[in-house]
């Protein structure tokens, strides 16, 4: 460049063009550098994400079908009651030190139906006490039993049981134990829920002493998601009990004391717990979205995922990245939630829930359309019979199907347009502080 300038001066030419070329070359070098930097960051980010993804435990699940790219698919989300990884006060609070909680059961069974083309997410909850036809272990559990007994040895039998009883194809499996839920909440810095009334659950350890939008974190998150014996104070000023006394009291005595202290009992049991889990999932979804632009927060979240969360071995990082890109602006209020239409019954002396037809088949057809298979082993009715469900043609009408689980349960309404269950006023709902 110096030699060229000297030649220009010798010939009487001004070196302006040379400076312009130099400036252009400088911009070219800067532009290439930026591109290289971006590629390096993206490549490094992908490698780091792939490393993090590789840390999540995987399990081989028999009976799942790999989804067709771009087509709707179903994820079986299983909430296990396994206490693995818990220690100290949390272990004691969840009963991990007793001999009555060995092994694992599927306390939460949710089928997440994802339609990438339509950009929709639909969740079907199957109560853990749903009576199904068993495919194995009949000598131990009988021909019919609760669906959660199929999970003792892992999700494979549960996947096969769901397809055989309901005709729902499962494409992926995610299982979360108590420790996984706690760590996920902690990694996000908690979730925000609005409690309209003080609430307590003597079994799950939930204690909400004041109302309003509040941060739920750590063990409290687990207590909300587990709450099946939920008491709330309508007058807002209950006499707060000493939980230490509960250890020596019977369930009847605990119930009597809480009622005398000004609490009201939610009699819906597992159905009420499903409602509260739905609120918790919506709050967690919004919390994750709020952290997407914070690399440090997302790193903390990803680093905690392996602690209590397991995915099936066919799940790929590319799939998860594709879902994240597709649903990064998804509004959790648009998430449609259903509960399997059921009615209470006593089968072989046990209190269970039996699938209610034709409401159940209408709901499944609405959710899964032509991908729904005919069951090979349908669930029993209250009389212990296993009739095949009615054949219902998929339709796009907005006719509502209503099934009442029991007089004390919430009505389960399943309209085709807006199926999300209305939350009872005493249950928490997601909020913004």
Task: Describe it.
With 433 residues, this protein is α+β, with helices and mostly antiparallel strands. It is 35% helix and 20% strand.
In short:
The chain has 433 residues and is an alpha+beta fold.
Secondary-structure topology with pairs:
Elements: H1 2-10, H2 16-54, E1 58-59, E2 73-80, H3 88-93, E3 106-115, E4 120-125, E5 131-133, H4 138-141, E6 144-146, H5 155-166, E7 172-176, H6 178-187, E8 191-195, E9 199-201, E10 206-208, E11 212-216, H7 219-226, E12 231-232, H8 251-260, E13 264-265, H9 270-291, H10 295-304, E14 309-312, H11 317-327, E15 336-339, E16 342-347, E17 350-355, H12 359-368, E18 402-404, E19 411-413, E20 429-430
Parallel strand pairs: 1-14, 2-7, 4-15
Antiparallel strand pairs: 2-3, 3-4, 5-6, 7-14, 8-11, 8-20, 9-10, 9-12, 12-13, 16-17, 18-19
Helix pairs in contact: 6-7, 6-10, 7-9
- The oligomeric status of these chains comes to single chain
> By CATH's scheme, which homologous superfamily of the largest domain applies?
LCP protein
- CATH fold-level topology of the largest domain: Aminopeptidase
Distance between the ends: 62 Å
**What characteristic shape results from the CA principal axes?**
globular
Residue windows where pLDDT falls under 50 for at least 5 positions: 94-103, 396-418
Q: Report the CATH architecture of the largest domain.
A: 3-Layer(aba) Sandwich
Number of strands: 20
Strand order of the largest sheet: 1-14-7-2-3-4-15
């Amino acid at each position: 460049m110096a030699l060229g300038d000297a030649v220009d001066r010798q010939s009487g030419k001004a070196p302006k063009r040379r400076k312009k070329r130099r400036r252009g070359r400088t911009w070219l070098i800067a532009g290439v550098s930026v591109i290289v930097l971006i590629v390096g960051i993206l490549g490094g980010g992908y490698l780091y994400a792939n490393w993090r993804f590789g840390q999540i435990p995987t399990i081989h699940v028999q009976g799942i079908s790999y989804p067709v790219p771009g087509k709707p698919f179903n994820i079986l989300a299983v909430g296990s009651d396994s206490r693995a990884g818990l220690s100290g006060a949390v272990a004691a609070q969840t009963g991990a030190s007793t001999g009555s909680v060995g092994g694992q059961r599927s306390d939460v069974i949710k089928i997440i139906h994802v339609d990438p083309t339509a950009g929709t997410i639909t969740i079907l909850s199957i109560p853990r006490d749903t009576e199904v036809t068993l495919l194995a272990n009949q000598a131990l559990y009988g021909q019919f039993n609760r669906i959660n007994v199929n999970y003792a040895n892992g999700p494979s039998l549960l996947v096969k049981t769901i397809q055989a009883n309901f005709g729902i194809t499962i494409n992926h499996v995610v299982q979360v134990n108590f420790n996984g839920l706690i760590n996920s909440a902690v990694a996000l810095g908690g979730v925000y829920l609005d409690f309209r009334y003080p609430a307590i659950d003597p079994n799950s350890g939930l204690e909400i002493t004041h109302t309003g939008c509040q941060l739920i974190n750590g063990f409290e998150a687990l207590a909300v998601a587990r709450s099946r014996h939920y008491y709330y104070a309508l007058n807002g000023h209950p006499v707060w009990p000493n939980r230490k006394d509960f250890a020596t009291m019977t369930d009847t005595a605990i119930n009597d004391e809480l009622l005398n202290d000004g609490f009201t009992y939610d009699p819906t049991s597992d159905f009420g717990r499903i409602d509260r889990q739905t609120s918790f999932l919506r709050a967690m979804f919004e919390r994750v979205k709020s952290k997407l632009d914070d690399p440090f927060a997302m790193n903390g979240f990803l680093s905690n995922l392996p602690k209590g969360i397991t995915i099936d071995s066919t799940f790929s990082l590319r799939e998860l990245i594709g879902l994240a890109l597709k649903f990064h602006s998804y509004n959790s209020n648009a998430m449609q939630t259903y509960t399997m239409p059921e009615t209470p019954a006593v089968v072989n002396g046990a209190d269970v829930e039996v699938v209610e037809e034709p409401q159940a088949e209408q709901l499944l057809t609405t959710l899964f359309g032509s991908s729904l298979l005919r069951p090979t082993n349908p669930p029993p009715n209250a009389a212990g019979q296993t009739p095949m469900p009615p054949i219902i043609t998929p339709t796009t009408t907005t006719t509502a199907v209503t099934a009442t689980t029991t007089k004390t349960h919430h009505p389960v309404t399943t309209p085709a347009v807006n199926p999300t269950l209305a939350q009872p006023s005493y249950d928490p709902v997601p909020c913004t502080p």
